[in-house]
Amino acid sequence: MYENVDVSGAIADERGDTMRECFGRIYPDFSRIEFNKDLAGKVFRLRIGSQGMMHQAPQFDADLAEWEDCQRCEVYHSCFDLSNAKLAMRHAVARI
Prior knowledge:
This protein has 2 helices and 7 strands. By secondary structure, it is an alpha+beta fold. The protein has one domain. The chain has helices at 64-72, 76-94, and strands at residues 4-5, 11-12, 38-40, 44-47, 50-51, 54-55, 59-62. A hairpin with a 2-residue loop joins strand 5 and strand 6.
């Protein structure tokens, strides 16, 4: 059965119990890239600079304190799996 995802990204299970806001959001939502602005998930951040028609190399950062917080979370493995699945889906859709 599919789970409900509201517009803020929080996930509710079948009983309507809401998971932590960050659940499944380890990575940024790459569908929302804007040049010269940070795009951040709970752990990873991306910034792509742009000057005129030229794009600079993307800058990736990881917040190690947030990563450690994730690893201590009781639903870390499930969250990590969902984050990776969402990343793979976005990658697949981008290639269509």
